[in-house]
Amino acid sequence: MRFDEPELSEADAYPALPDNEYGWEKLYTERMAMAYGRRFGMTIRLARFQNCYGPEGTWEGGREKAPAAMCRKIAETPDGGTIEVWGDGTAMRAYTFIDDMIDGIRLLMDSDLEDGTNIGRREYVSVDELVKTVADAAGKTIRIKHVEGPVGVAARNFRTDKIRAIGWESRFSLREGISRTYPWIAAQVAARNSGG
C-alpha cells in the first residue's frame, strides 16, 4: 500500500470528481439506482468492487483487468521472454478474486446496509509484483519492458470497514487467486492459437 494515498471510505465518493468517464459512469449509475429506490420504495445496496478477477472473466480485448491481461501476456510469451508493461511498474493496486467478491455481494444483499459498500482485498502490490506473481504461477522467467501507456493514478486505496463489519473477509491471496486464474487463461490462449 502506498502510504501517501489516503484510504477512501464509501462517503469519499462525493463530492465526486472522477478523473475519467469510466468513474463518472459508475457514479451516475449509482445515482440512477438510488433515485429509482426513492421513487418506488425499494432498498438499494450498491457494491463497489476493487479490481475483480478470476477464471471465466474477460481476458482479452482491452476491457480485462490487469491480472487477466498479465496472465494472457505471460501465457503468450515463452519462458525467458519479455512482456511490455505500461508505465514504470510502480503503480499500486489491490485485486479481489471472484469467489471473495461473490461472497461479499451475497453478504451485502442479505444485510441491512444501504447505499455504497466497498468490497475488496487489502493486499496492495505494484504492477511489477503482479507480473512476478503471474510468472511464478506460470513457472516462467519473464522480463519486463516498461513502455508509455495509460497508468491511471499512482495508487487507489479504499477502506472496507463497512463490509467487514457484517462478517466479510477475503479468503484468497493474490498468489492463490492467480494460481486458479492463470491455468484457465493459458488454456484460452492455447485454444485460440490452435484455432479451437
Features:
alpha/beta; Rossmann fold; 40% helix; 17% strand; two-stranded parallel ribbon; 10 strands
Give a description of the structure.
There is one protein chain. Helix content is 40%, strand content 17%. The protein is α/β, with parallel strands linked by helices and 196 residues long. It has a single domain, classed as NAD(P)-binding Rossmann-like Domain (Rossmann fold, 3-Layer(aba) Sandwich). It has a two-stranded parallel ribbon. The longest helix has 20 residues.
Count of helical regions:
6
> Could you tell me the radius of gyration in angstroms?
18 Å
Order of helices and strands: EHEEHEEEHEEHEEHH
User: How many strands appear in the DSSP assignment?
Assistant: 10
The parts where pLDDT drops under 50 for at least 5 residues are none
Structural class category: alpha/beta
Mean pLDDT across all amino acids: 90
Distance between the termini: 41 Å
Oligomerization category of the chains in this entry: single chain
CATH architecture type? 3-Layer(aba) Sandwich
CATH class: Alpha Beta
The global form is globular
Query: Describe the biggest sheet?
Result: 2 strands, parallel
Helix content: 40-55%
The CATH topology label is Rossmann fold
Number of domains: 1
